[in-house]
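[Q] Does anyone have a clean structure-token version of this?
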Amino acid sequence: MKKFVVDNTEEDSRIDAYLSEKAQEISRVTIQRLIKEEKILVNNKKTKASYKVKQGDEITVEEEKPKETTLKAQDIPVEIIYEDKDIIVVNKPKGMVVHPGNGNPDGTLVNSLMAICKDSLSGIGGEIRPGIVHRLDKDTSGILIVAKNDTAHIKLSEQIKEHQIKKTYIALVKGIVKENEATINMPIGRSTKDRKKMAVVKNGKEAITHFKVIERFAKHNCTLLEVKIETGRTHQIRVHLSQIGYPIIGDTTYSNGKNEWGIEGQCLHAKSLKFVHPISEKEMFLEAKMPEYFEKIIRELEYI
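[A] Here you go.
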């Protein structure tokens, strides 16, 4: 049981905001849930998330015991780019799902990380997503940060919410992109024609993608792009580039998927991340090496 007493400088804050500042190891979403479950009391009485605290209020928080996970640790190799006691940054291979779900009960990045990190992964993501702060599609390779404790998880999530983590991708698309650089600002939501797909839809969530041309390969009718995103909508880069007529090569969902190299999975790689370390507050810039199949295709394009 945690106890807090409000002093005169802390009056008039919402209780969920007050507690997320006082108990930084607990996320604001969790605090709001605990309030609904009456596991957070003010002066031994139930409260609401909108309650504004007053001087002298005694707030008690019933601590939750970590859930036992039923997930298996699996010895699946994954390249570690950086690791310390708070975070681990990996280069996820193409074809690997980030966390278990329908059709993918194991063999995921989470199963691999459980073997690498043992008990050292944050619990905020829930039983099937320990440590997972952000994701990459199954067939997108590249850099991914994972939190090893709840404080790191909360602070990284805040950076993502405030668009402070800068992500850079490399994409090979069909067609010769005319603009040297441009911004796509189109809302994305669930497709009304196919619920398994995302699409540009009028009432979707804001989605902003910036791209610039690295190289055009006229002979093969394709273009290599550097892509940066301000928002992190599901399938955002794939949907946006397809929408403007330049689908990613190998993407079977948002193009016809045909390509002369016969690759499985799209030519999309999360190359780098720039962020502030959640604990040390040191500025970090990390890069993930491109997979061999992607580098091979680019070499062939340059010399054929």
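[Q] Thanks! Anything notable?
[A] The chain has three domains: 2-61, 66-162, 167-270.
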